[in-house]
Input
Amino acid sequence: MDVLHSSRSLSGGSAAALSILYTIIYVLPFYLSSTTRPSPRLSRDAPAVIRARIRAVTLSCMFSTLATLTLLVTRGGVSIPQAVRILGYWPWSLVDIGKSLLLTAILFAGPLFEAGIIEGRWQDWIQGRGVLEVLNSWGGWRNYVAGPITEEVVFRAAIVPLHLLVPGITPGQIVFRTPLYFGIAHVHHFYEFTLTHPHLSIIPGLIRSLVQFGYTSIFGFFATFLFLRTGSLPAAILVHSFCNWSGLPRFWGRVEPGEPLGPPVTTSIASQHRADDDQEETDRMQVGTHDHHNTLIWTLAYYIILVAGAAAFWKLLGPLTESENALIPF
Output
């Protein structure tokens, strides 16, 4: 469904200008205060810096949300409840949230297989081991809670509806335009990298920032598509948090097993005492060959699952994001 019907009265230039303004308001406070501004002696990961930045971006979120809400009511001709709906704050569909997380997990099937099966962390996931430790740290709180919430509030819930107000705009244009602001918002990490690594040339920092701009923009394409298809801000936030937790997939290199595939080659204590040097050397060679064989099997399995997950993600992208709460028809 089209939540705005024919009531669209914001130019493309105005939507772009406001999106840039929101991006600046989100990032600029990081450098206006000594408590949020990194330096060679103060890392962005310092707890005091993280706390101050969370306070700053919370205010930025409030401003951007109220500005877009006002425009939806005054320019879009919708009621306040309808405007809140377009912002993605309601209704909360657990089905849409669950399907969105399932789709994302399918895309990350390879990394999940590596971490859960190859590295043997699946039991920790089931027991929730480590969750409280991560969330009790300011770095974990920023990466998995505050960061996803504030970024999705600004770059999805506030910026995307601005473009819905533009007459004649297509879903594809929104999906591929608006995430660029999200990518640009991460370029400031280049400045932070040069501050905290003054002994390095600018080349590593530049490459790092370009890569970050690339993958944040790609994630933004997916998150924007998801937001438009489901109309769910909570779904976008949880998917964002999941992606932060999972990290970038491995695209090359061998996968090293955390546990051997099959029984390890060992000898008893008694036999170890009786073995001579030649036998010990043979055992070491057998273990090395066994581990090498395991590594090849794990690596092959990982890349097969990685490709299969990507193919399944593409096939299920439409069905698993279909929702009666969609903001615009595709």
